[in-house]
Design goal:
Elements lengths: L2 H11 L8 H7 L5 E3 L29 E4 L8 E4 L18 E7 L2 E4 L1 H4 L6 E8 L8 E7 L3 E5 L5 E3 L1 H4 L7 E7 L8 E6 L10 E4 L2 E4 L11 E5 L5 E3 L1 H4 L8 E7 L8 E6 L5 E5 L12 E3 L1 H4 L15 E4 L8 E4 L8 E5 L5 E3 L1 H4 L1 H5 L4 E7 L8 E6 L15 E5 L5 E3 L13 E8 L8 E7 L4 E5 L6 E8 L10 E5 L4 E5 L2 E2 L10 E5 L5 E7 L5 E8 L2 E6 L5 E2 L3
Parallel strand pairs: 31-38
Antiparallel strand pairs: 1-30, 2-3, 3-4, 4-5, 6-7, 7-8, 8-9, 10-11, 11-14, 12-13, 14-15, 16-17, 16-34, 17-18, 18-19, 20-21, 21-22, 22-23, 24-25, 25-26, 26-27, 28-29, 29-30, 31-35, 32-33, 32-36, 36-37, 38-39
């Protein structure tokens, strides 16, 4: 029995929890309302895939990333898109296709300022990785390309400078996703770059599907080792993946997330690979031993999250991580290929996971889709993270299905999911070649909005207009040396409930989510108790933080109300 046949049999025999149809979910919680407003607010961007008739060049179908960042630090989130370019410039018209940076002038007025800001790279763009790598208070941008990657350093005056050569981070292999985090414990941001396949115009292949020619999958190509750049503190980086214990074998990576799976306040790194086993790296040595024993060990197989529950490699595309079942442990959700289930790995504690896809309902919801970007979001404000997934096939327009519906999955609070997509707005009624997803509360109204990219059609901005009847509490955290406090644990307590979130970095597919933590509390909770356990070992407690506001909290400091 093939893995696809086994998955189909499991789907047919899995019993659905009684009384949990999409209709009953909507009766029990606020109906989801998402409105697509990109063109209305000035965001007009379409990824240029450079489809070359008859060549079926694999990068054409991967799409480009999107990143939320407040690059001018005015309290309003801006939006950056990686664009494609000409894969065969000699056959082109000389036209250039550049990345786009939409500055948020007001909630209804975004304008593309990429050229004047100096962030208009014209390589074949893939991943967008935003963070303040030099701790000067302004977000920088790293763009992973099919071709030389590029680092844009934020000058703090609304412009960027290309410092790739100086920094030493301009690798030319096929980069996809990435993440900034403190890998070696020296209180500055390092960079992990996920690489995909060794595909060139010379070795690109076509495949036959029935009587139709289409794109070949990753099995036809060799994987490429990932890269880890250690920040030297002077604007330069040193590549140290092997030294640190990464890259036991070359993967075929498309997504990455850094979080704390075992509550030891040390970074755990999960890499989603396409049809090869996924990687899970955890700390196995003290950072003071560098360059002695390796700092990280790869443990995905023994942890139970390298392959599916039946031992099969899966075509992993995107990652969401959250505590989906409210047991205090960070779980993993992965999007996969058409007629492969998406996978939810339930965190059992002690760095052990189980494939819980069928019991939780995510398998049944995903078998007929091909998922890429994904984001956890509590769309209805009930304290349980729901899931959004962008879908779309990759084989070519002549092979069906091609375009697909996006999906919204409602979480019942115990980690079981039901699809509510058809009730969620007009955008969900159409089929798209969905690719990257980035989440943020761009309009500062206390709920999560979504930026989504597609092939062939303009990017979407989905404004969340769901009426929850609950209040929110938004927290923007800064750790020591102004770096993002990856692995911090934040607990918000009111008289009615208690919620904990872990500060993570990365996730989705090719993209960067806004890093603010968003909690929802009862409408009667005008204040909440906030406790932050920082990775440094320090704990800060604030007994009465006002809700319906965003707060910036620096380690050791007091909450500061910020205009967002």
């Amino acid at each position: 029995m093939t893995s696809e046949t086994a998955n189909q049999k499991n789907l047919e025999t899995a019993s659905a929890p009684a009384g949990e149809s999409a209709s009953s979910v909507l009766l029990e919680s606020p109906p989801p309302v998402f409105v697509e407003i990109a063109r209305d607010v000035g965001i007009n961007f379409t990824f240029h895939s450079d489809v070359v008739a008859g060549r079926f060049l694999l990068p054409e179908v991967m799409g480009g990333g999107v990143a939320w960042l407040d690059f001018d630090r005015d309290g309003m989130l801006d939006l950056y898109f990686a664009n494609g370019s000409l894969l065969e410039p000699a056959a082109g018209t000389g036209q250039e296709f550049e990345n786009a940076l939409f500055r948020n002038y007001s909630l209804q007025d975004f304008r593309n300022v990429a050229k004047e800001s100096g962030s208009d790279d014209s390589e074949y763009g893939q991943g967008c990785i935003a963070a303040d790598f030099n701790s000067d208070g302004f977000s920088d941008l790293y763009v992973a390309n099919y071709g030389p990657n590029i680092l844009f350093e934020n000058n703090g005056d609304g412009t960027f400078t290309d410092t790739t050569h100086l920094a030493g981070v301009g690798d030319s292999r096929w980069g996809t996703s990435g993440v900034w985090f403190d890998a070696d414990g020296d209180a500055d941001l390092d960079l992990f770059v996920v690489n995909y396949l060794d595909v060139t115009l010379a070795n690109n292949q076509t495949c036959l599907y029935g009587d139709k020619i289409g794109y070949c999958g990753p099995g036809r190509y060799s994987g490429v080792s990932d890269l880890v750049y250690l920040n030297q503190g002077n604007g330069t980086f040193r590549e140290a993946a092997d030294e640190l214990g990464f890259n036991p074998i070359a993967g075929k990576g498309l997504a990455i997330v850094v979080t704390d799976f075992n509550a030891d306040f040390l970074p755990d790194i999960y890499v989603a690979n396409d049809m090869t086993a996924n990687f899970l790296y955890t700390r196995c040595a003290d950072p003071t031993t560098i360059p002695g024993p390796r700092l990280y060990c790869e443990i995905a197989a023994e942890a139970g999250c390298a392959v599916s529950g039946d031992g099969m490699n899966e075509a992993s595309m995107g990652i969401s991580c959250a505590d989906f079942d409210s047991d205090g442990q960070v779980d993993l959700y992965l999007t996969h290929y058409y007629q492969m289930k998406n996978t939810l790995y339930h965190n059992l504690g002690g760095m052990l996971f189980e494939d819980d896809s069928f019991r939780t309902g995510v398998a049944a919801a995903s078998f007929s889709s091909l998922g890429f970007g994904t984001s956890p979001l509590d769309y209805d404000g009930d304290g349980a993270p729901d899931l959004f997934i962008a879908n779309g096939h990759v084989l070519g327009a002549a092979i069906q299905p091609n375009a697909m519906h996006p999906q919204l999955l409602h979480n019942d609070g115990k980690g079981k999911f039901r699809e509510v997509s058809r009730h969620s707005g007009e955008y969900f009624q159409s089929r798209w070649l969905g690719r990257s997803v980035a989440s943020a509360d761009y309009d500062n109204d206390g709920d999560t909005d979504l930026a989504v990219t597609h092939l062939e059609k303009p990017a979407a901005l989905l404004r969340n207009d769901t009426v929850t009847g609950r209040r929110f509490l938004g927290l923007i955290l800064e750790g020591a040396n102004r770096i993002p406090p990856v692995c911090a644990r934040v607990t918000v307590t009111t008289s009615e409930d208690r919620q904990t979130q872990v500060f993570s970095a990365g996730g989705s597919y090719l993209s960067t989510n806004d890093s603010a933590l968003l909690f929802h509390v009862a409408n009667s909770a005008e204040t909440a108790r906030v406790e932050i356990a920082w990775p440094s070992g320090r704990t800060d407690q604030f007994p009465a933080v006002a809700s319906n506001q965003y707060w910036r909290i620096t380690e050791g400091g007091s909450p500061k109300d910020i205009p967002r």
